[in-house]
Batch of 4 targets.
Target 1
Amino acid sequence: MAASASDIRSALSIASQPQNPAQTPAQSKKLQAQSSRKPDGISRELYSLIGPSAPSLAAQLAKPKLKQKPNLGSRSVVKWEWRSFTNGARKDKLQLRHWTKAATDVNADYPFAKYNVQSTPYIYTDEEYTQYLQDPEWTKEETDFLFNVVREFDTRWYVIYDRYDFQGGPARSMEVSVVLFKLDTYDQSTLSPQDLKDRYYSACRKLIRNRPWSGDEASKSSLLASFHFDKEREITRKKYVASLENRTPDQVAEEEALYIEVKRLEQSERKFKKDREDLLRVLSGVESGLPDVLEDESPFNNLPIIDTKKKRKGPSSGFLPTDVDSPTSASNVIALDPPIVRKPRDPKSIAYDAQHCIIRTDLPPNVQATKAAHHPAFMRSFKLPYPKAALAPRINQIFAELGINNTRLVMPTRDNCARLEGLMEHISALVESKKILDKLEYDIQVAKKRLGIRNSEDREGGGGGGKGKGVGIGSAMDVDDGDADADAEAEEESVRDGRAQSIVSTKSARSRRPTRRSMSISSVDTNATASARASNKRKFRN
Amino acid sequence: MVNYGGDEVSALVVDIGSSSVRAGYAGDDTPKAVIPSSYGYFNNPPGGDVSMENGNSGEPKSAYSQIFIGQNGPSTWRAGMEIGNPLQDGLIHDFDSARSLVEHALGDVMRVNASEHPILVTEPPWNTPANRERMAEIMFEEMKAPAFYIANTGVLNAFAAGKGSALVIDIGQSMASVTPVVDGFVLRKGLATSSIPRLVHSHAHHFLSNPTQTRHAIDLYPHQLIANRLPVDPGAPPRFTLREDRLAGVTQSWKAWYEAREVDEWIQSVGGVLEQGWNDQVAASRPPRQYEFPTGYNNYFGHDRFAVCEQYFFQKPHFVQSNATAPKTIPSLILEAFRTCDPELRQVLMGNVVLTGGGSLLNGFSERLASELSRSFSHVKIHAPGNPTERRYGGWLGGSILASLGTFHQLWISREEWQEHGTAIVGQRCYWRPVIRQLLARVKHGCSYERQKHQLQGYQDNEWVTRTMVMKG
């Protein structure tokens, strides 16, 4: 192997290891190992062939390693100790024992002692009491008791009402039910749990107000506000809550029904508005510039929502900023937005565009610049107009008469395309008006015939009835017949008659020649919209 | 460790109830020792031949010559053995035997030395201060506990459900109670209790031991008194022979005890309540359940198994009128508790109803409660653990959570404090300030910690496994 390796080295003109005969094989082996270690991912044979100058690609051939095994054993074991501790939150020296990491400080504070948070209670001196806190309804003893209880229970008023049992005072913390259940008999003079709150907070407020205050006024007033308590308001509120609960099932049902009714009214209101805007949109066309109909949640926040949405929408849809706040665009007024004003372009850039045959196409203003609205680049000749399928044979025929190939333009420039389109439009309008004309003529003819029959009947009395009937049947059969083979016949005829007939018949609008076959084409109804659509198409395209 | 707020100081939790005494280590999810509260005793020392027939001998200083507690206590037949229960209406009235029960649970079952562990004991919400102080005295003076605390089962049940405020509906063996708990405090004025479980029990007893149109009276002999029996068809008269040798030694109290046990087992096996209120047709349409008594008598119970338990929720008006002292039903207890509560509080409580106690495991009980409550309140949410262990030992579980919290350890009444202040400290510490604010924030963490442990350990528990499988499937 070694020989072949050196051979290849020489063949690849790589400097081979200087073979020193003086070195022992072991030493040389060691040297080699030191100088170049086989990288991962190359087989030993390959490495001995190409030597240390392995291509850098080989580094990426390293086979993926498995996830490293978790090293469970060698982690240092944490030592725990069953140790006694004292709790800093306790006043006595109770020694409890618990497991703790041996590394922790023996004299460290108990970690849970810090949760022993005490609220700062308000304490007053006798002097302060006589000066500020006198109240005919409260004795000093009861006030003391109240403050103690409040401190004990951290101002949890529900619990305070429950546990308040001052001996010798008026019954203050009496049954809540008296207040809550007998609303009719509720008397302002009855003492209620609210008295406790009122007394406590008013006393605190007085203390704050009258004590020297070290901080600024703002913090003092905010502290005062936090001790604010309005007894009357609280009682009223409780009454409301209680009355809410004392509703009978009927009342609840009625309320619910009313609520549903209101919702329904709101909904119909919204629907009406939507319909109105839709109607306006239809009346004034696609480009009326009406904003999208907004789904308002409630009639109260109606206006602000519209305003914000408009503001957001304004710039992107090409509104001028002044339009946004124009009073006519308020939703309650039936008014259309002013027509879209295109930004006048810089004359210089217009000149530049003209010079370089650049035609800029703008998106229609009320189409959002979304992905769906985006037109990719296209060949103009792909977008050549096609005649309507129903009219296609006739139109193609006219094109053939004009000697124009309408499916393939030799030079589909912008102008040429526009002209072709215009021509197509004119031709289809021509064909359609011809068709209408033919129908009208036929109608007149039929009506005249009927009139004639009736006149003759009148004249002949009952005698000519049979004949008239026969004619009537005959004409009816004619029409039926025409309907049956309408298309085929129409094509045949149009091919046979050629242009002359059609042109003549349309140009000389007075011609009374009855043409049964043109009558037979009965699909006239959609033609009115077809031309409009074509014009729309054109607008979109430029 | 600190994340969960737990810091275990190897405290013991003892929960004394009417049917059983539960004891175990704080931080565990189930009590280690569950022993019946009833015990057997001899009033007069009988002959030496019966003495010390099992290891559970009582204290020599006890009023009884011998006391039999635990697994082989009341349920083993002994000639002339009387049965006692230290509890009456959920309150301990006989502290000597209560102490013996606790000593047995801690010393003989758990094999711990009570003087080395802080002990948390539970009390019903209607406990008296005297009882509370007596319990502290026993713990400090006789059990030599280094620290002691007595906590309210209402609060503990709320904690076991991970709630600081809750309406705890606890259906025990002898008492049912509805306790409003706010921020870890029981509202005493809202507390409502009744002995409705005993009424249901006596109804069932009356129903079984009296003949009906279709069957004879059922003998409620326990298996201890039956020598042999033969299988019989459902409804057929039983064929069994009694152990005449034992009959003579049966005392009145033991007879009452075993009959009560048979009735209880019948209620627990076949009893149920209809989910949507009483309806004869629905009750008749439910499949009857077969139950076999120790005598071999067996029958299908259909309509009656619902009729008996319906007493929990509804009593006939004429029955209530004729018995002014009739215990209140569960709905009227709830109404009574609510009458004293602030309307704002009611909404909070209705959203946190905790159903607990072994009696609430009756078939369809929680569904019925939900339908009863939702009839008069909107937004009712009932927390009823599906795990029977959690339901039966809810008070113990709450105590286990509480006593393993780091912030709780400042509340223990230490021996030093006891010696300094005496009984006054018990009321002051346990009643006035049962749980302080910062503790409440930790309870929820503690509870989730408890749940995690529960799930880890619970896979050995068959019930738990079937429950999780049902939930998955």
Note: The longest strand of chain B covers residues 176-182.
Target 2
Amino acid sequence: MNINLTLIGQSITFIIFILFCMKYVWPLLLNVMQEREKKIADGLQAAEMADKDLELAKQKATQQLREAKEQAAVLIEQANKRASQIIDEAKDQARLEGERLKAAAQAEIEQEANRAKEELRGKVAALALVGAEKVLQASIDKKAHNTMLDKLAADL
Amino acid sequence: MASEGQTSTEYIQHHLQNLAYGKLPAGYTRYDGTVLEQSTWTVAKSSQEATDMGFMAVHLDTLGWSIGLGLIFCFLFSRAASKATTDVPRGFQSFVELLVDFVNNTVKDIFHHKNVMIAPMALTIFVWVFLMNLMDLVPVDWLPLTAAAIAGDPHFFFKVVPTTDPNATLGMAFTVFAFMIFFSLQQKGVLGFVKELTLHPFHAGKWYIDILLIPVNLILETVSLIAKPISLGLRLFGNLYAGEMIFILIALMFSAGLVLGLFGGVLQWAWAVFHVLVITLQAFVFMVLTTVYMAMAHDIEEEH
């Protein structure tokens, strides 16, 4: 246990190792560690942001869904209204058409009946004339009596 | 294991002698009776020779192991530092980062000034002193016997724990002391440093009393200043020297029969387990105290 030059040798060694550590070990490691710390902090922040974004997107999606549903409901209601309207219109049209057809048919019937009456009138006049001729046997002036018979036929 | 024909005292003394390389003066009678004709640089073959070499000698084993362990520290840590990535740290990198983080936090707690040297110094001290202390856990005879076998000399001195050599611990402590003085002068200036030594701890506020107090303050402050490096170095040395001594005493039991040998084995294991705590703690204490001293050197206005 003698104190000797080893003391100074150890001192020099010590200083050299400190300088080495100061230059080649400490700054590199500390830099890496600080960078990683920053990276982790950034990552956490990004994750938080993403979470928030997701939340927002979800809210937006629900809102859009709700709006779409409302729109659909409105459309369905409109369609229903329109359908009943169309049915009503069709009913009205059908009724009108029916009435028109009925009126036309009645008019035709009337016309036909009139025509038949006319025809009948003519035939009755001729028939009456033939019957009277037979009864009176040619003694009757055709022209004089014909006028009278026509009047009779018009009264029918 | 005391070798054949060696007493316990010789065994212990042999274990406590460093491998000294130094200058022996002309006319010196060596261990084997030969007389040197002229002064020679040589390896000491006995404790007496090592003592007679005086200051002009180096302990090859202390320097060798401390430099070797320091190089291991530098190599491993610089490799880890250059390979370090900001990705997930793996294996040795995460271990190194754990240490760096631990040292960084400790230094930040103690040292509040701006100085890029303090934290790397703390890391160097912690790891290097720990590695040097760690050599204490290698069974006391393994490396010395191996070295003796390689050197071909059964009396080859070889101490493997640099911190059991006061030269090593005091060398580091005095370096710390030099840094203390340097930073004190740098931060406070010569006048500020002198003021700190002469106007504390007693300060009256009136110049005519202060002048009388200056010698008292100077003596007190100088003693406390000098006591710092001495206690720093001797604390580490004392702890490790005592630990080493116990290991040597336990190792003596190995040559004293089977029962005592087995008991010694158990004791050595138990002491080694306890010593794991001591070596870590002493490395940590050396680091913390160094940082504290540096902080004191930087503190401009000391409060008493």
Note: Strands of chain B lie at 20-24, 40-43, 57-59.
Target 3
Amino acid sequence: MQVDRVSITNKASKLVEELKNRHGDVIFHQSGGCCDGSAPMLLPKDDFYLDESDIHMGNVAGVDFYMNQAQYEYWKHTHLTVDVIKGRGSSFSLEIPEGYRFKIDSRLFTEEEQKHLST
Amino acid sequence: MSHSKPKFQEKYGNFIGGEFVPPKNGEYFDNTSPTDGKFIAKYPRSNKDDVNAAIDAAKAAENEWSKTSATERSMILNKIADIIEENLDEFAAMDTYDNGKPIRETTMADTPLAVDHFRYFAGAIRAQEGSASELNTNSVSLIIKEPLGVVAQIVPWNFPLLMFTWKVAPALAAGNCIVIKPAEQTPSSVSLFAEKVKDVLPAGVLNIVHGFGPEAGKPLASSPRVDKVAFTGETTTGQMIMQYASKNLNPVTMELGGKSPNIFFNSVMDQDDAFLDKCLEGAVMFALNQGEVCTCPSRMLIQEDIYEEFIEKVIARTESIVQGDPYDMKTQLGAQASEDQFDKILSYIKTGKEEGAEVLTGGEQFQASGDYKDGFYVKPTILKGHNKMRVFQEEIFGPVVSVCTFKDEAEAIEIANDTLYGLGAGVWTRDGHQLYQIPRAIKAGRVWVNCYHDYPAHAPFGGYKMSGFGRENHLMMLDHYQQSKNMLISYDKNKLGFF
């Protein structure tokens, strides 16, 4: 058994596919902080500088999902599901002009799952 | 007294070169109110062509505006302050409908603070001086402040007029031209501002481009033709903006949120007096502006020996909050700014419960009635848990506070600093030593001592750690919008003798 840290709903996956067709390669980066933060941002792959301070948490709908290491330390005991909701953010995330926001639903990993985490 | 909804045009334009102009691609987006879910108006869905037109207008105005005297600019800022003050009710009503916050806050806080902010920078720029140093008998160093040129600014939706003002007032005072993108959730009061001041500000000095982050924000932040980028928002976008600016070696200022601790030492309970009453109000400040404040005191730290008694009073005060019709002057808690905010807050409450946090009050949606039944309201919520829980570490941006206890000063400081952020903090005590020593030990840019959520001009505001950098609300902000020209003058008639 292998347990992933991140998954994605069908609805969100469909929107990701549409946005990939329009924008090319993309990544998810989980944002922290103010306003539209604490939400996953879908960004053009080459726009966002990634290095060892970003943890690769998995791949959903063919898109790599990253989080800042410091933030990861507080999140790592929870499983994340990328979902989508109608909404209007003011960040640079690519779904915003379409009138949607990606969002995260979280649940705690069970002890059994913790033993089998893939990353 | 009940206020009424403001009047809106059906469609607004960008404000470029002193005129309202339609977006070049002819596309608009619908802006709706979070108070009742209804349509407000159409705003331009701008792209890089509109941004470039705005930068062109700013560039065209730059030479003349940068040469205006501090006196002239000061007079203009004072006129702007007067105009906002004369139209205070209209600005307040607009921000309430656009953002969802109660009318008493836009009337008594947001709008008067914006007025005062323009007046502060009108004064600050006249009091600012360069400097002269005699380095030796024959050498003098002069430092002259110069404007940067054209600055790009991107502002959030939680205080639409006030956040706009925090950015615009110092930049104008310093002699810069501006291209600003308001948040797409709250474009209204900024448009009203442009309409009211367009005869006061020379054309092209202030340009407003509406639209979405990836389409309008990105070309603005990455333009090699701007001289600075200022941003308030979240961390990932903050990093991206810094990257874009780094390509042009442009300076940036960033205000990126927090998870501010509000610390109550046991001495607050020594007497049942006016000060204790003030402490309780301070504890409930997490609900101010629906918790949609970067400095929301979203972590409450209570000394363990007073916990039971104190939290009982805090819960009672929280449950007395009047929620609902944002246009009623008695309403203390309005609507969350958007459906996705609303959803995020409820999702965090759920995560908190799963992590083992106990809901002491609230914890669910507030169902408003009548006209506001489709708005996005959340009950003020207190969660009890520990500082490693995600609800203690992430900015929920809602009326939700996470409470924990501490044993002594050392533990209070340790918990307070166990966060990625460092924007605000509150310290409440009757102990004269604590009220100096604890704030000094907290790694945050603003520590309120025996008060909270006060934002007067003249007190610098900005972050440590992942909360960003730059100090707004203060003449220090002038420096962030200025170059320092150094003229090094020799009065020696004789050569050095090197060549």
Note: Chain B touches chain A through 54 residues (CB under 8 Å).
Target 4
Amino acid sequence: MVFGRAATVVWKKLLHLLLVVLAVTLLTFVMTDRLPADIAAEISGRGATAADLAEVRERLGLNRPVLIRYASWLGDVCLGRLGNSLATELPVKESLRSHLPVTLELLFLSQLFALLLALPAGIITAWRAGSRLDRLTGTFAFACASLPNYVLAMGMVMLFSLKFKLLPATGYTPLSAGLAANLKGFLLPALAIALVEWVILMRVLRTDLIATLKEDYILLARCKGVPAWRILLVHALRPSLFTFITVLGMQTASLIGGAVIIETIFALPGIGRLLVNAIFAQDYPLIQGTVLLITLAYVLINFLVDLCYGLLDPRLRKVADNG
Amino acid sequence: MADLGRKPGITFYLACGWLALVVLCALCAGVLPLHFTLDQIDSDHLAAGPGGAHLLGTDAMGRDLLVRLLFGSRVSLIVGSCAPLLGLVVGLLLGMPAAWCRGWSERLIMTATDVILAFPALIFLLVFTAILGPKLITITLGLGLLLSPRFIRVVRANTARFREREFILAARIGGAGEVSILLKEVLPNIMGPLLAYTLVVTGYVIVVEGGLAFLGLSVPSPAPSWGGMIAAGRDVLEEAPHVVIFPMATMFLTVLAVNLLGDRLRGRYERS
């Protein structure tokens, strides 16, 4: 019975998420259609006559109404076809496949660094709330949160790449060229993102953990003589992770395609760069393919976060359909 | 007045002072007795260090950094203040009715909000500026519209808290119309937390505007902006780090000051 209801909730959520994907891709189609650049002129090259342009537009199907083109694109997507880039004529899938690993590695490393900073800091400051350590961490976090990640990125490049010559300033070394060289290239960009993002994670964890530590069952555990680390890590942490997981999910989702400035500074060929270049070239199939990937990732991460709620607190599995 | 909380410390006054200085500089940049004009190129001093005729040095093209920093503050301040205000106005116009009328209008507004939140902000900004041109007003409008869904959510949540309160009921019994209740009874009560949120967003917007410069989407090149100066200084990072350090420090201090004020204001309303 409970299981059946949970399944309905999951289906409802999936339907809602599907609607979001449809709305976002349609909106992208309509908006990019308004771009002033003319891809037909770009393809036909200089000295193209009006007839040439018309021929190119006809061939690419650009003179059909935008809704018809969207419908035909959607049909292709359902059959697993993303088409070819207009500018380079490479398959869109191929471009996505070559750019996605860069974005995923940046995302994984930056979130890892952010977690390594936020989890211990959040736990310790919540345990010793109001102490000198808490205030110091808070001040440091506040300064971090006021630093734009590109400022941090350039500051670290000046320090670690130009002054001490420890790490490369820009450039991407594929994994095939060795793990160490590959990681070296990702260290600064991942840190630049993490040093800004850990702050909000730390803050929500601290707030929620402080609230949990005031609960009666924590008092009971203390009375029973459970050691502090066990209370924190086993009893208090799990129910305090809701906002934390939500924020982590939101940050992760926004990094797919949203890390474009960091990717630009460090010359990393990620999804964000791919999207920006596609927009500048008015390359519809590539824009649509990239946006589809970004939105699917966004939606999927949100879905996983929702599932995590149930894992964190079994009580929510029963009342999930109220929310 | 007992609810004012802790007394403002020295950091609070420093933050106010810094912001006042930046605003003053932005206002008076045109009438200050500066030795150089905005686009004056001093070809004898390319990327010169601080000191001498150029107090903060020059950039790679030999333009005076101090002058560009002063004029550049206008972009950050205008975008940083107008975009959140636009978001706030849209948030009030749509969020308050959504919370008050409920039913299908609330569902419609909130669904639209969800879609815009899921929409890649980058696409919106790129297309928006590509169509209307990278001008100050475009950037302000675009960022303001992008912020609106967040404001709608905050306004709605804050308004909903007052739906069942006694003084609302009292006003209704007294014969006040719903619009007048929203404006006279609800609005004054939600303005405090909303202004605190607006300040927090302001710091964020200044950061985002600077980031747009890296994609060539901020104000076009000869016009100065802090983000533009940082992005342009990337090419001479090794030889002339001061070209980026000054705008970076200015931007950091400004965002820090705005965040400090926002944090204080928020702390005040969270307590009460």
Note: The domain at 96-322 of chain A is CATH 1.10.3720.10 (MetI-like fold).
